[in-house]
Amino acid sequence: MTLLLVALAILGASGVAALAAGRRPRLATALGAGGTALACGLGLFPAAAALAGGPPEHVRAAWDMPYGSLDLELDALSAFFLLPIFLLGGLAAVYGAGYLRPHAGRRNLGLSWLFYDALVGSLVLVVLARNGVLFLLAWEAMALSSFFLVTFEDHREEVREAGWTYLVATHLGTAFLLALFLLLGREAGSLDFRDFGAHGPPAHAGALFLLAVVGFGAKAGFLPLHVWLPEAHPAAPSHVSALLSGVMIKTGIYGLARTLTWLGPPPAWWGWLLVGVGLSSGILGVLFALAQHDLKRLLAYHSVENIGIITLGLGVGVLGLASGAPLVAALGFAGGLLHVLNHALFKGLLFLGAGAVLHATGTREMDRLGGLFRRMPRTGTSFLVGAAAISGLPPLNGFASEFLIFLGALTGALSLPLAGATTCLAALAGLALIGGLAAACFTKAFGAVFLGEPRTGETAGARDPGPAMGIPMAVLAAACIVVGLLAPAGAGAIGSAVAALVPGAHGLPEHVQTGCAALSAATAVGGVFLAAAAGVALLRRAVLRGRPVASSVTWDCGYARPTARMQYTSSSFAAPLVEMFRGLLRTRLRLEATAGRFPGRASLATETPDVCREGLFAPAFRGVARLLGSLRWLQQGSVHVYVLYIAATLVALLVWRLA
Amino acid sequence: MDPARLLPLAFALGLAPLLLGVVNRTKAIVAGRRGAPFTQPYRDIGKLLRKGAVYSGTTTWLFRAGPVGGLAATLAAVTLTPLGGAPATVSFPGDLVLFAGLLALARFLTVLAALDTGSAFEGMGASREVQFSALAEPALLVALAALARATGGLSLTDIAGGLGAAAWAESGPSLLLAALALGAVLLAENARIPVDDPNTHLELTMVHEVMVLDHGGPDLALVLYGSALKLWAFGALLVAAALPVRTGSALPDAAAGVGGLFASAVLVGVVESTMARLRLVRVPQFLVGAGALAALAFVLVGK
User: Fold this and answer.
1) Is A192 helix (H, G, I), strand (E, B) or coil?
2) What is the CA B73 to chain-centroid distance, rounded?
């Protein structure tokens, strides 16, 4: 715990130092990025120690704030969420040092690093805080620092717009959290977490659960509260997108998990609700991702999808608890938690890769790219690993966590009575559908950006980025492989996190061990795959030895001069699936058809705006604006009238007091 | 390890291409031709292995890795596949998820290799492949979950072992529906009519074949062998569901399984000879229908 406090102090100091060095961008970057990396490196040790079975550590100090106390605790659940925060926070900082270099002199990098450090620090505080006031303050600091990071390029209108959307969304979520903590606190008599639910489960636990789902869901990106995600994540600089998408939205999951520990034994409908939320977020998230043309927007929608997968895991877990099936519960929670870490690794990697592409070519439009694999082989290989991992393919880490959820759902489908079994079957089928669609989406993204021929001249000067950006990507790609192969070895850590998530339930860690035993058999077969691949590759090399191996153009069915414009684009690749789900996606099509015998030009443009934003929030906000607009006659802008208001109010108060 | 557990793997590795030979011979006979010998697929693979290779200048190492990784993933999936009642080489709880995952990995690599060529035709095939497989995967897993609920087994081997005459007597209708769904997934995943036509000559209408247009020589041999293994693996699952021969000892069970597999190859040949191909826009309905059958099978399991 001392080391954690030291890490927090270093974060604060490096942020302030970077701000002070703001006029000298290189120094500011060195102080900001170096300090963050150091702090994150230090912070990993206590987190790992707590997961290895160390007892929960506690720090408590008095605070003048009413109902507040400086109460921090490091238990296994907090430690599990600290891992991705420190891992990705440090790596993204190193990457940011290279990524922000072109902005040196034009923007105040010191300020940007201050907000970055504030974000990492507040993330750490959010998962450590054990007092409602402290938690909400850290939560707000996290929201504000990330808002300023998102609006880094605030000279662009769409960035300001995205930042505004984010600010509104996060505060709407916080309003629900405020209500949640007030209700919990009123019953417990204090806002300290240890008093919540200490005297048995609170009354109206269902209403509290709903408040938590909405409040934390707005941060996590549950459908339909996800609308800020596809706006804010592409607008931010790429290392910030990686941190927002990989880590920050997981605080919503953390909050929900923490709330579950206070609410007592869950009824079955909580599980149904979570599975439903998971299915809708997962399936619609990946469908919207399929319809996008902007690489970073596509990745942002995939965050909605992966939050859906995590929620499916939690839902299966809650369902298992409610039905008295501890094995199902353990597997669901374990898979969901492991997916939190895994998503941070591969989504961080993918955003950093997308940033490298943007850095090298200046565009995020997939249909303007192509053939980058030969120009940027290292970036391409890292991105490929991330793409396979997010598609849930063995033997990478995405498969490991999805396998645990699958196994939990399958066990539930086998052993529970029909209602629970059908819910588990829905989770199972939904996961399979999400996996298939994710594979479709990432073959599209990787194929359009990295494979084939360049579609425009923008790729001409593209090269792999320098080591500051290259090394974090390589580390994350390696982590995806290592976690994929060694996840069963972490069974103890996952087990203790699950045990912290369900206080009072016994035997869950042992059930996690059971699941991880099956997972280790699966990774062994993954090893068979790798060995078979090596064998087949050797065979291929042996039979080709001494044979003619020629080079030619791509076989385009007899057409001798294929051009890059004949390639399938990312939009044409996704078109059948987008067309199949057009009822949900509402893709807009602008077609300028050919006319006359000698047609000049034709064009086709498609755009898939967010249905929830356009159909739900935009009308609602317009309605609110109209309602409030009817009060506009009060605001004339004339000082005389305002003085009149003050005088009238005073008179009214006087009359009220005297009467 | 019990050496008998290597039996299904050995049969698959040795006999998988013969399955393609049986399908083609059946189609020839129904069409009134004599047809190629049963061993023609072996000869094709042998011929291709003796050739050199031509690569497009657009491609990268990924194109060369596609067939290698695809075959390796299919091989790994075959180690999980029981043969009739005979247990698979490897089995553990939840191995059916890994089975689906490995086939998805093979598909992922094939699709990327196709996109690596920059050809419009291969992009078209790849796009259709990912669309159909995204719908086939849930149908496969739901069908397997229905079988799992009927037998209480969590691994493919336990499920296959439990699907004897007793299980059919207890929940026959639901097993039949699940087997039908598995059959539909088999046809879709292995590029057979009514989803795809392995013999078509028009690149525009192909799904699977067009993705491997640019592969030649040893690479194409790997692709061919891989698709034979994949047909074997799906066929073995179908036979496990539909053929309730369980003697309790591996060799007769495996022999019955091989017999069932060749019978199902004949069935595939007959389907291909008597049915027309579905229009591409109808294929999703076919697959969603398979998924619905599987879900119905799950609900109908009498427990």
Assistant:
1) strand
2) 13
For B76, which of A371, A411, A532 is closest by C-beta distance?
A532
Q: Does B101 touch chain A (CB under 8 A)?
A: yes
Average pLDDT by stretches of 10, chain A with 659 residues: 90 91 86 93 92 86 86 92 95 93 84 93 95 94 94 89 92 94 90 85 89 95 91 92 94 95 92 96 95 94 96 95 92 95 96 94 91 93 96 93 95 90 95 96 95 87 90 96 90 88 82 90 93 96 90 79 83 91 88 85 86 88 91 85 93 91
Long-range contacts, A124-127 (Cβ 8 Å, 24+)? A124/A4, A124/A7, A124/A8, A124/A11, A124/A43, A124/A82, A124/A85, A124/A86, A125/A8, A125/A72, A126/A251, A126/A254, A126/A255, A127/A78, A127/A81, A127/A82, A127/A85, A127/A251, A127/A254
**In this structure, what are the phi and psi dihedrals at residue B98, rounded to the nearest 5 degrees?**
-65, -40
How close B26 gets to chain A, by Cα (Å)? 30
Segments making up each domain of chain A, as ranges:
265-533+569-588, 620-658
| CA A490 – CA A47 distance, rounded (Å) | 14
Let me know if A271 is exposed, middle or buried by CB neighbors in 10 A (0-12, 13-18, 19+). buried
Which residues from chain A sit within 8 angstroms of residue B295, using beta carbons? 425, 429
Q: What domain count does chain B have?
A: 1
| Cα A291 to Cα A300: distance, rounded to the nearest angstrom | 12
* Chain A residues touching B126 at Cβ < 8 A: 443, 447, 568, 573
Q: Choose among A374, A532, A557: nearest Cβ to B203.
A: A557
Distance from CA of B203 to the nearest CA of A (A): 8
Tokens of A315: 């839902």
Any bridge partners for residue A604, and if so which? A591
Per-state percent for chain A, helix, strand, coil, to nearest 5: 75, 5, 20
- Domain limits for position B94: 3-300
Do residues A136 and A181 touch, judged by C-beta distance below 8 A? yes
Give ipTM to 2 decimals: 0.96
Taking alpha carbons only, the member of A145, A48, A44 closest to residue A86 is A44
Query: Which of B52, B102, B120 comes nearest A566 by C-beta?
Result: B120
Contact A536 B71 (CB under 8 A): yes
- Residues from chain A that touch B122, judged by Cβ atoms under 8 A, are 568
**Probe site for chain B from A401, A543, A561 (most B CB atoms < 10 A):** A543
CB A403 within 8 A of CB A522: yes
**What is the Cβ-side half-sphere exposure of residue B124, based on CA atoms within 13 angstroms?**
15
| Chain B contact set for A566 (CB, 8 A) | 120
Chain A residue nearest residue B107, CA to CA: A439
- As a whole number of angstroms, the distance between CA A469 and CA A382 comes to 12
Tokens of A121: 């620090």
Contact: A577, B111; criterion CB under 8 Å = no
For residue A644, give the amino acid letter.
L
Q: Which of B:230-269 have CB within 8 Å of A?
A: none
CB contact under 8 A, B112 and A451: yes
CB-nearest to A428 from B64, B117, B141 is B141
Residues 6+ apart with CB under 8 A from B270: B26, B30
- Phi and psi at residue A119, in whole multiples of 5°? -65, -50
